[in-house]
Each structure stands twice: as C-alpha cells, then as structure tokens.
Amino acid sequence: MTLAELRDRLPYQPLSLGIVALLASAALSVAYSATKEHIAAAELHDMQMSLAQVLPTGFTDNDLLADTLTLTGPKGQPLKIHVAKKAGTATGAVFQVAERGYAGDIVVLMAVDAQGTVLGARVLKHTETPGLGDKIDIAKAPWIESFAGKSLAEPAPERWGVKKDSGVFDQFAGATITPRAVVKAVKGGLDFFTAHRAEILGEKTS
Amino acid sequence: MSDESYGGIVRDGLWDNNVVFAQMLALCPTMAVTTSGTNGLGMGLATTAVLVVSNILVAAIRNFVSAQVRIPVFVVLIATLVTLVDMVLNAWLHDLYKVLGLFIALIVVNCAILGRAEAFASRSAVLPSTIDGLAMGLGFTFALTFVGLIREFLGSGTLFNQASQLLGPAFAFLEMRPLPDYGGALLMILPPGGFAVLGFILAGKRVLENRRKARAVPVVTAPQGA
Fold it and tell me: Are B43 and B33 in contact (CB under 8 A)?
C-alpha cells in the first residue's frame, strides 16, 4: 500500500494527528525542564535588580529575598514583604502595591524605612497608554522618583494627590488617572506599613 | 502568485504579495504593536524566525499529513514552536525577552503563519519554503517597521525610540528625534492612527501599481501562465 492510499484511510487521520501532538508535547516538556531553572534564576535576578533600585546602596546587609514575611495586604490579599536589615536590626521593608490605572493594574514596588518614609518606588508592571500614561515608568520619565523622601507626615495626608486634586505630585498632560492611581497605591502602601509597622519590623513583644 | 523561481518568491514576499500590504493578513499585530518603529521591528523579526522554522517543518512533513487533518497538525506545530521560542528566550536571552515578551505570545494568533503553511509550505519542497518564509517574514518586518516609523514620527516626533534596548547599545545611533519641540499627536499612537496610516499606505501602493500598469500597457507582453 502506498503512502498516498494509506493517507486517505480513516485510522490514519487520528493516528497521524495523535503522533504530532505527542511529539509536540514531548518537545515542550523537554524544553520546559531544560529552561525551568534558567527562567527562575532570571526572574530572581530581575527581583534583585528591582530591589536594588528602590533601596539606597548600603542600606541593608541581609538577603532581602530570604528575609520575607507574608501578611494580609491592604486589599485582603497575601502580601510578601521583604524586610531590610542592617547588622541584625530591621531598618525598613520592601513590598508591592497595586492599584487600578487607566487600563489595568499598575504594580508598584516600594521601599519604606523604619520611620515610614518612602525610600524609593518603581513601577514593575503596567498597561497604560504609550506616550501618555507610561511616564510612570522610570525608562520613560523620572516622575516616579518624586516619591523618595515622602511620608504620611510630609506632605500631609490630604496633599497626597496629583496637583489637579490640590496634591503635591505632578500629573501628565493628557493623563491624570494614571499618576493618580500610582499616588493612591503608594499612599495605600504607607498606610499599610504604618498599621503593621511593629509586625513587619519584628518589634512585636507578644 | 507570480512565478515559482526563487526571485519570484522573494519579490512576492517583499512586495507583490506582502503579508500586510497585499494579503491584508496579520492586521491584529500590525495595529497593536506598531506604536514605534522599534516595536514593529522586534515583532517582525520574531515573527520571521517562527515563520521560517514553521515553513521548514510543514514542508518536511507535507507528504505524511493528509488533507483532512492538516489544519490541526499545522496549528499544533505553530503553537509548539512559539511556546518553545518563548521559553528559550525567557531562559537564555532574558533581557531581550523583557522587550519582546509581549510580542511572542501574539505570534500564535498571527494568521499569516498558518496562511503560509497552508498556501505555500504544504505544497512545496523544503528549500523554496524556507525562502518563502524568509521573504514573507522580511516583508512583514518591513511593513511593520514602516507603519511603526510613520506613527512614531507623527505621534511622538521620534524615530526608532529605544532601539538600543532591542538591538543592543551599538544601535543607539538609530534613535533620532527629528522634531525636538513636538508635543506629539496622541491619535497616531492609539489604534485609530494605525488604521489611518495603513489606509494611506494601501492607497499609495495602489496608485503606484496602477501607474506602473498604465505605463506597461503599450508594450506587448507574452501571454502569461498556461
């Protein structure tokens, strides 16, 4: 029987499709196990890089990726907190906050020192309009650096907003919702830190 | 379709039968990623790589695949390929992946790849299929980069912004800012700008071809085809 005749037989169809699917899955599982560790290492490296961006150099001497605790975040979700320590004493914390922007969630990584002052913040993920809202990204504009040094005392809580809402933070021409969401996210993070300060810094006596 | 010579295949892919400008396929990625020349280039190159490999594979197994199950077989092949590219880039070229990652998942839904598998590779030998994949991919890259550059220029007054992130620091010279004080036209960055630019390009291409045809009329040509 030639290949052409065989090809038109009914059993040939599911069999050939099955073989292709089997080979494809085999290739995928081989690739998955070959790349799994590399991908995890690359993501770990990414996390280290962004941690290093929000913390001033020399601020910590511990492994932030190992010193973590998980609390219930501002929106009821589990929140992983990286505790910064220097010579064994907790000096601050790094964690992620998220707020809904103009087009989807904006994820912000922020670092706070023990007094509740923002050390730095970076937008990790966003889907804002290119050319308008994406100025929150450090690659596009230095706007996000304006959070460094701010706390709930300075400026006062009611001034935590964009200038249009009589706050202290700049908005962008044509995009107010995006910076408003980032300001809200960082303020939410500070509120959260203040409420759980003792727990995060390990000062709880109980 | 023009002649079957390699030159004909290349011309088909780059211009006569260009994926975007002539076949009007793959308009979804065309609209979605062409907000800048760099994005268009990145998407185009990633798609070219997948297109070449999928054409080779499809041409290699074309005699074993029956007409009844060929579409699911091609879909499985293309999806597997794209996933493999995604994992490999993520693992070993992580910096490039951070720039291209968004585009790679979009390649799965690029109908041009299935289109080439079906229209060309499933009925041609491996070598012509490879050339077809390369030519179609480069034509697609050209179309995306062209649309992207026009939108970027009109929309934000830059050219190849952030090209060094995609291609490496050596290509920083590509980044230009021809209109330094230009405030930008948001419309061009948003999807309507993409449709408008593509419409003007298609109209321009048609005018160009009609003119060429009109000029060719007096010349008596040999009858084509058989």
Answer: yes
Yes or no, beta carbons of A174 and B186 under 8 Å apart? yes
Laid out side by side, the sheet with A78-86 consists of A68-72, A78-86, A89-100, A105-113, A118-125
Residue B2 above 50 pLDDT?
no
The secondary structure of A68-134 as a DSSP string is EEEEE-TTSSEEEEEEEEETTEEEEEEEEEEEE-SSSEEEEEEEEETTSBEEEEEEEE--PPTTTGG
Kindly state whether residue A117 falls inside one of the protein's structural domains.
yes
Cα angle value A73/A79/A85 (rounded, 5°)? 115
Is the distance from CB of A120 to CB of A128 less than 8 angstroms? no
pLDDT digit string, tens, across residues B116-130: 999 999 989 999 999
Chain B within 8 Å of A49 (Cβ-Cβ)? no
Grouped pLDDT means (10 residues each) for chain A, 206 residues: 81 92 95 92 87 84 82 82 86 90 90 91 84 82 90 87 89 87 92 89 62
Q: Quick check: ipTM above 0.95?
A: no
Contact A84, A90 (CB under 8 A): yes
Count of the separate structural domains present in chain A:
2
Q: SS3 for A106?
A: strand
Q: Kindly state whether A3 is in contact with chain B, defined as any CB-CB distance less than 8 angstroms.
A: yes
Question: Do A117 and A111 meet the contact criterion of CB atoms below 8 Å apart?
Answer: no
Quick one: pLDDT band at residue B221, thresholds 50, 70, 90? low
Specify the amino acid at residue A41: A
Residue A166 and residue A104 share a domain: yes
Note whether residue A206 is domain-resident: no
Residue A156 at interface with chain B, using a CB cutoff of 8 Å: no
Give the pLDDT score at B54: 94
- Clarify whether residues A82 and A150 are in a common domain: yes
Looking at the structure, do residues A133 and A44 belong to the same domain, yes or no? no
Beta bridge pairs of residue A121: A110
Range of the domain at A191: 58-201
Chain A residue closest in CA terms to B39: A130
Comparing C-alpha atoms, which of B216, B199, B149 is closest to residue B178? B149
Whether B155 shows a pLDDT value over 90: the answer reads no
Residues A17 and A119 in one domain: no
How far apart, in whole angstroms, are the C-alpha atoms of residue A19 and residue B100?
A: 32
- For residue B178, say if its preceding peptide bond is cis, omega within 30 degrees of 0: no
Is residue A184 domain-shared with residue A153, that is, in the same domain? yes
Site from A33, A39, A102, A124 to mutate, B interface, most B CB atoms within 10 angstroms: A39
* Unique residue bearing structure tokens 């960082």: A186
Q: Residues A35, A107: one domain? A: no
